[in-house]
Write a structure and sequence with these properties.
2 domains; six-stranded mixed sheet; HET-domain-containing protein; HET; alpha/beta; 273 residues
Length: 273
């Protein structure tokens, strides 16, 4: 399989271009670069500079008005991102028109604390992005002032000589690394940490509450996690998987039931164990 890159980006409402049943044959023949939004164009340019021939973009590579294709592809997200050579993350962009690239100061790149800057990164607040970053072997973040790097070996940015150890939203790779040698109890602990972080992130459609985590669930199953039940694992039901709590003033029961009431996925808002 030839190397390919993936683009991780915020949809930000209306998509200027996407693949549908009506235009898929036309898109297979080619898409005019000028018709792509700025984020997509700059991602294509960067991928070409790296000598990588293929770029996977969800809104173009999934047939958006075909529910069967969407369901199949959404459950394969971990495979798509996990097998990529690199993920380009438009971390600063709130929508596809904002672009990837930004101008840094020509004289110097000043140090700033990543732990206090994450609220300015629209992409890192999106629930779908969690599994993309978790599975990707390498992620290059395009932020307002600099590039940030994330991989199994650690995190780094242009403003510091060493790694970025105190950035809570840039250390997600730690869990993926430990999965390779974790036993059943350790895997369950890692899963609960994921749920805690995931449940605090934003979804455009609350109906995606379980769908946006389905790829990671398949990944955990491939490592022996067992039977998956609406966000929890059957093997650990008596060991605390049902002992999740919510912050009442920030969480509420869903008006439309998407999961059993014993599952954390039945709640709108963040949970913890």
């Amino acid at each position: 399989l030839e190397e390919y890159a993936c683009l991780s980006h915020c949809w930000g409402g209306l998509q200027p271009i996407q693949t549908t049943r009506g235009n898929i044959e036309s898109h297979k023949r080619g898409i005019d670069l000028a018709k792509l939004p700025l984020t997509f164009r700059e991602a294509v340019l960067f991928t070409r500079r790296l000598g990588i021939r293929y770029l996977w973009i969800d809104s173009l590579c999934i047939i958006q008005d075909n529910i069967l294709d969407w369901q199949e592809q959404s459950s394969n997200m971990c495979s798509v991102y996990g097998n990529s050579h690199l993920v380009l993350a438009a971390t600063k962009a709130a929508n596809p028109m904002d672009g990837c690239f930004a101008k840094s100061q020509s004289e110097y790149v000043g140090w700033h604390s990543p732990s206090s800057a994450h609220d300015n990164f629209p992409l890192l607040q999106r629930a779908w992005v969690l599994q993309e970053r978790y599975m990707a072997p390498r992620v290059l973040h395009f932020t307002q002032e600099e590039l940030m790097w994330e991989c199994m070996a650690g995190q780094s940015c242009e403003c510091t000589a060493g790694g970025v150890s105190n950035f809570p939203l840039l250390n997600i790779k730690t869990g993926a690394y430990h999965m390779t040698s974790a036993d059943s109890s350790e895997m369950n602990m890692l899963w609960r940490l994921l749920v805690k972080r995931y449940s605090s992130l934003d979804l455009s459609f609350e109906s995606d509450r379980l769908a946006a985590l389905s790829g990671l669930a398949k990944y955990y199953q491939s490592h022996g996690a067992g039977e998956y039940l609406a966000g929890v694992w059957k093997e650990h039901l008596r060991e605390g998987d049902l002992a999740w709590t919510v912050r009442p003033h920030k969480s509420k029961r869903r008006s439309v039931q998407l999961a059993p009431t014993w599952s954390w996925a039945s709640i709108e808002g963040s949970v913890s164990y």
